[in-house]
Known about the structure:
Blueprint: H1 3-16, E1 20-28, E2 31-38, E3 45-50, E4 53-57, E5 60-64, E6 67-70, H2 73-85, E7 89-93, H3 99-104
Antiparallel strand pairs: 1-2, 2-3, 3-6, 4-5, 5-7
Amino acid sequence: MSPAEAALAKLIGDRLGDAGSVRAVALGKGEVRLTLDLAGQGAPVEIHAEGLGWHPQGDRVVVSWTRLGSSLAWLDRLAAAASARAGHRLAVPDSLRLLPLKLLLPRREPDQPSK
């Protein structure tokens, strides 16, 4: 795992807590694929985001994407609905631990569409 993938795995693993763990992270130019072991699931679950980018907004970083999905049909539908409600973006506090992610994802202006 690259340093950026390891940082992302830790960030997500911390958020999951007892609900599961991160098995693998594959971070590419503008996309990420996660393989998770989730409590109650007999097999690993894949989650992916495409068209990823970021921009600064005050003391926060806004991460945006064009598509969010999962290998589980019900989670794929929930992710698509939640993604649309959130405007396909998420603002998180800026910190040094996001630096590896910011170096791999394209920086976009707030009104620039994802490719």
